[in-house]
Amino acid sequence: AWGQPSKFQEYDFLQFLDLEKAPSPRRFQPVPRILRKIFQAREAAAAGGVSQDFCYVKELGVRGNLLRLLPDQGFFLNTQNPSRDGSCLQKYLYFNLSAIKEKGTLTMARLTLDLGPRSYYNLGPEVEVALSVAEGPGVWGRSLPKPGRRLALQSVPGPQGPLHFNLQDVVKDWNGNRLKNLGLYLEILAKGDRHSGVNFQVENTCDRLLRSLRASLLVVTLNPDHCPSSSRKR
Amino acid sequence: RAAIPVPKGSCRNPCHRHQLFINFRDLGWHKWIIAPKGFMANYCHGDCPFSMTTYLNSSNYAFMQALMHAVDPKVPKAVCIPTKLSPISMLYQDNDETVILRHYEDMVVDECGC
Questions:
Q1: Which of A25, A39, A69 lies closest to B95 in CB terms?
Q2: pLDDT digit string, tens, across residues B74-107
Q3: Mutate to test the interface with B, among A2, A6, A14, A19 (most CBs of B within 10 A)
Q4: Of B98, B101, B104, which is closest to A39 when you measure between CB atoms?
Q5: Phi and psi at residue A128, to the nearest 5°
Q6: Do you find a cis peptide bond into B49, omega within 30 degrees of 0?
């Protein structure tokens, strides 16, 4: 008969995994493509007996031994019809960084905005993506978050595919003082024909963005205990 | 050294690597580990008698300990341990619905020795 490991022994091992207790997720999240790709490449290399540096993420070009994909816990601020200036949507983005508390160096924090599937048939008007640090009480207070310091402004030919933004400095700042993490403010504009007002194409684009927009934050950290610098390696 | 054949009959149970598959389902960890479902961790088991220390991927220390054990049985025998380990990657999910990919050193026994 098989015995269960004692809670004490299990706790010791979970500590080694940087977990306080065994997680009990309600449902499995889909594995993000980038993580699946890295995992599969490592498994294939291990099966082939290829020696690997597990402290370097070749696919991202950064050092790190722990990769987290944090889901967005924010909400839409405006889901009405696009305004006359083509403003499609405003979304408050929030990422819970409380899990990132282990000793380690942040080597990457990349925000991915997935604007929807790529398709030849869905080529809409050009869209402008404005990303700012959120100001105001946000989720914790009564008033709605407002855009603060602008982080990026990017125009793309159509609402399709993923956009990446380097947020390493912002996340480092948030990690230094958790109270600073008030989230991000995202605004997307669809650039239609302004003379004829909000046209059908813009409305269609905005509808599609509202349905398909996904945001996630990929955070890579390097634990020096598990990944000594090359000079310290034997 | 691995190419040197171990003399037959000198030890019934020489130190070597045995297969051990760790199935996360057996531990109840399949509820939060997405992949792999398990992994071949292996383990080391067997004897390290003095007569064999030259053949069993032994350290100089194991040789000396086995020699001392032969002279004085109060000194414990040399032990069979992993001499080469390799890491694995694990994909799991925490309670915040965050998907995590992490690399763990020293999870798989590749070679054993005394």
A1: A25
A2: 999 999 999 999 889 999 988 777 899 998 888 9
A3: A19
A4: B101
A5: -115, 125
A6: no
